[in-house]
């Protein structure tokens, strides 16, 4: 496949910033093909086409991570190695998100209403809930924090499950989240630009609004996806029944624990910082 040949797993780890361009490329192709072939069903087609394009690369990246888990590497060093691929995935997610947002801002409004229809409805529902909880007292806000955290943990569970069942299945959830964040970001920037010409300030504010809690949250989902993918690839290679079983499971558990801590931080930022500032 042409897109698969653009970068290899080793190069992805050594040059994680290259994933930013790949995210933009894969997403742009998905949007253009959706507008050309499936204009009335673009909301979901852009997700499937993006996932289809990046699946071979991400599958090979996860396989490399599984090989590291069974090698004789100290756990701290192993986590550092996982950090490299996490950087690649975060750059890739940022590329997808910024690309979705860019297309949302610059496409005609009538086109975006169709292309991001499902995402816009989801954002509308989320915003109603956040607005309704913006003026809560500390006790009520704490309960809202628990609700947000439990929802994020549920998403993390699906990332693990999808990666376990499909190898890189978590990329579907993450691509969907990228389109949701981008739609919210694009809508915010477009509405603000209608009343102001300070493009840089408005764009920076729009990115910050969702990046504050989005970065640790998305990082947690990727880490959980890596954990599920490691176990999945290990099972395919019949290595869970070997002496390497304990090491693979220990590495996966550590990754899930790290992901959970990041979700706690992300939920706290979303409820106690973002909901107040914005």
Structural overview:
The longest helix has 38 residues, at 199-236. This protein has one domain (4-277). Helix content is 84%, strand content 0%. By secondary structure, it is mainly alpha-helical. It has helices spanning 9-14, 18-37, 42-70, 75-106, 109-115, 117-132, 138-166, 170-193, 199-236, 245-277. The N and C termini lie far apart (44 Å). The protein is globular, with a radius of gyration of 19 Å.
N-to-C order of helices and strands: HHHHHHHHHH
Taken together, the total number of domains comes to: 1
- Proportion of strand residues: under 5%
| Rg, Å, rounded | 19 Å
- The gross shape turns out to be globular
The number of E-state strands comes to 0
Summarize model confidence as the mean pLDDT: 81
The CA-CA distance between the termini, in Å, is: 44 Å
Measured as a percent range, the helix fraction is over 70%
> For the report, how would you describe the main beta sheet?
none
Tally of separate helices: 10
Q: From the helix content, strand content and strand pairing, which structural class follows?
A: mainly alpha
Low-confidence sequence ranges: none
Q: Would you summarize the structure shown here?
A:
The chain is 84% helix and 0% strand.
Topology:
Blueprint: H1 9-14, H2 18-37, H3 42-70, H4 75-106, H5 109-115, H6 117-132, H7 138-166, H8 170-193, H9 199-236, H10 245-277
For the structure shown, list the relevant keywords.
278 residues, 84% helix, mainly alpha, single chain
